[in-house]
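Team,

Forwarding the record for the chain on the shared tracking sheet. I've put the sequence and predicted structure together so nobody has to dig through attachments.
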Amino acid sequence: MNPVTPPVSKPSNLLVTILSFALFFIAIAASYSTYYVRADFDYLIEAECDPELENCFTRNCDADSEECPPNNLSVYKQWYIRASDFPKCADNSCKMECEQGIIDCRPIACDADAGDDCTGGEVEAS
């Protein structure tokens, strides 16, 4: 006689479905926590810049140019700020808050050697 082997149990479709939905909801919850609760990411902010006093980025904002964003700044400076700090800004540029140290802003230097279009201040062109 042949020995009888017990049937090997396979995971049920219900278990696989439940685990799939659980993993899906864990991924959604982690993303929600990162982007909405903790605001754990940075914004790139542009503000007006005076080329007589500082090194500024430049871009073409002529009427027929598609390079210019809605803020219409052709001469500007840039900062990175934490998304969680953005509600503390009086306007979208956060210029006053960054210059007064109210929020932590990391300035981005215009670097002509890296291919940026710069003007004024301490421009170091190649």
